[in-house]
Amino acid sequence: MKKAGIMLPLFSVPGNQGIGDLGQKTLTMINAIADAGYSVWAMLPLSPTADNNPYHPISSFAGDPVYINIDRLAEMGLLTQSSIVNCNKFKDFVDYDTVRQFKEPYFLRAFKAFRKNYQEYKKEFEAFKREAFWLNAWTAYEVFRYNYNNEGWSHWEEEYRNWPEKQEITLRDHVERIFYIQFLQFVFYKQFKEVVAHAKEKGLDLMITLPFFQMTDSAEVWTSKKDYMIHPDGTVAEYVGIPPEVPGNPGEVLDMPVYNLDQMSAERFKRFRDRVSWLAKSYKYINISQFKALDVFWKVPKGLESRFGTWKDGPGLDLLELLKSDNPDTIFLAEDTGPHRPALSVMETEMGIPTMDVLENRMETKTLKRPALPNSVLYTSIYTQPSLEEDYVSFSNNKRIALRRFFKKRDYQHRSFHDLIVNYALDSDAEMVILNMTDLLGAKTPAFLRWDVEGEQKDWAWKIKDFKTLPSELKKTTPWLEEAGRLKEE
User: Fold this and answer.
1) Are 287 and 276 in contact (CB under 8 A)?
2) β-strand 285-289 against 310-313: which pairing, if any?
């Protein structure tokens, strides 16, 4: 059966506390998406980052406390509801620094109450610690990162940088901090599981993006350096890069170490499989970004420009087959736009992984005529692109006329450009269509990137102010879902 979903980061959900979080407003969003007939909510990672970019997580397992809902802490008996105030309630962007400063005092007060009444929560807390096999490593990483003013491990002194291997520094002096870090993860996952359960109850499957490579300054790289091209002293030997394939483009070197694939293969990719299996507990769909690296990727020696890099074969089917075997109920998707070798398409076909198609990338009448492949996921636009309406403003008058004529000939009569694209996408042959929420709402301002506020660039900050028009905007598309055979089954 054909399906349709909405692409929306959690931070963009309306919220009383400055950011979309794991509270009641997110349950309301789930209701609105599901009641309109959609089957999938495509999200971004909820992990801590160093720069608020969800594609740059510093842990594949931990949750970012910024998403903890304070009202829910009162429901747990850790705060009094009357003591809670709002923060940037109706702002249309997220000010991360303000939100973190606002929430931290509440977390500390809740932790004090948790510690005082520990016996009440002990059983549930201990069960969480047993389940979260990654928690001790994350806790140690956070303790040291906090001591280094939130700088990552590659900037630490040697005894801290190489602590996972030698453990020359005792953590006894940090017992209170350790307990607090574990408390935040316990609360995050308690609230997150309630959100996942509500989505399941409403028949809404969740989709998450998993970056294939990891940031250098992530907890997992710190604790398993042997899985990466890293010298014994903890310095990176080779980085992942983007090759200079287009004339005039110098390429790019990313702050992501190359995998030591020989080592990982010898251990049957255990740590990568652990990342995926943890996500598979909560998400039906796992969308692997940088998917092309499973076939081949560009590696660059440390200190050199991208042009001095070379191609290296990725793990290919060896890894994919293990992931599918570990998680038989999980559906894997591929972020594979742009040129790639035929070998990648063969791999996707063999493993039944749908290809990615972005409608905004073919905004010409000639390319719009090309039908979507049945075994594909069609996106109206993606996070790193302008919204449809923002893009439309940049078109020449002749291009706008040609596009509108194209849709009129196919009997699409909507006045709004974004409605034309959304309806056209839903009618496609693609197995699944994912509508960017900025496109469905017709947002004309810069979307997830380049969000300018009073002259400042605020990436990953777009937020819906409230629910006033949102349910009706979603419901407007319900007849289009039904006509396209994509309406969620009750």
Assistant:
1) no
2) unpaired
Residue 342: CB partners within 8 Å, gap ≥ 6?
none
The predicted model scores a pTM of 0.95
DSSP bridge pairs for 4: 433
Query: Kind of pairing, strands 296-301 and 285-289?
Result: unpaired
Asked if residues 5 and 208 have their Cβ atoms less than 8 Å apart, the reply is no
Residues facing residue 244 across a β-bridge: none
Element spanning 409, H or E: helix 397-409
Bridge partners, residue 262, by sequence: none
Buried b or exposed e, range 222-232, using 16+ CB within 10 angstroms? bbbbebbbbee
Task: Identify each DSSP E strand in 212-326 by its residue range.
Answer: 238-242, 252-257, 285-289, 296-301, 310-313
Using CA atoms, how far residue 153 sits from 3, 56, 58, 146, 470, in Å, is 43, 15, 11, 11, 42
Contact between 286 and 329 (Cβ < 8 Å): no
Distances in Å between the alpha carbon of 202 and those of 28, 101, 153, 335?
Answer: 11, 34, 42, 27
Q: Give me 268's structure tokens.
A: 């049957």
Burial of 23 (0-12, 13-18, 19+ CB in 10 A): buried
Alpha-carbon span 222 to 70, nearest angstrom: 31
Contact indicator for 9, 436 with CB cutoff of 8 Å: no
Residue 54 token pair = 């969800």
* Per-residue pLDDT tens over the stretch 338-358: 778 889 999 999 999 999 999
Greater model confidence, 384 or 301: 301
CA-CA distance, 275 to 210, in Å (whole number)?
Answer: 9
Distance between CA atoms of residues 30 and 409, nearest Å: 36
Q: What is the pLDDT of residues 81-106, one digit of tens each?
A: 999 998 877 788 899 999 999 999 99
Residue pLDDT, tens place only, 451-468: 555 566 678 988 999 999
- What single-letter amino acid sits at 170? T
> Counting Cβ atoms within 10 Å, is residue 399 exposed (0-12), middle (13-18) or buried (19+)?
middle
CA distance 155 to 161: 8
The residue with tokens 């001591």 is 147
Average pLDDT over every residue of 417-426: 97
Q: Around Cβ 370, how many Cβ atoms within 10 Å?
A: 9
Give every strand in the sheet of 432-436, ordered side by side. Answer: 331-334, 285-289, 205-211, 40-42, 3-7, 432-436, 376-379, 355-358
Closest CA to 175 of 147, 143, 199, 148: 143
Burial of 271 (0-12, 13-18, 19+ CB in 10 A): middle
